[in-house]
Sequence to fold (153 residues):
Amino acid sequence: MKKTLEDISAKEFLYRRFDKLTEKNKAQWGKMNVKQMLRHINIATNLATGKTPANRKPKFIERTLLKSLILWGMPAPKGKVQTTAELDTVMNKIEPADLNEERNSLKQTMEEFLLFGVKNEYHPHPAFGKMNGKQWKRLVYLHTDHHLKQFGV
Fold:
């Protein structure tokens, strides 16, 4: 079974992994530190609710082939995918001060993301275009899992 935030046990599994993060966790690839990573996921999750505006239009290959491959579970190449400018905490020189604050903020964002889909239609993804709730919940799970693995949890 594919993991998704539709499954409460998958969400709780991510939260337990968030709680294992410390300042000592170093990235196994990429340039973010652990606090920047949590903020990156937070900003990215907010794409679905429109709190983070998407400033690009998806290309045909992204919204068709790539979207399908990612949602089916093709792992993102480590350190090879360039994020969009809005999500790039390193380029934007975002240096969160407190790890616990970032962790709690991300959990709150995930809860808001899940509640948003109950009454609202999720916003399009900047690369994958229109996505339904199931697709967004799968993508947010996969994206979060990818970055937690980046930091060894």
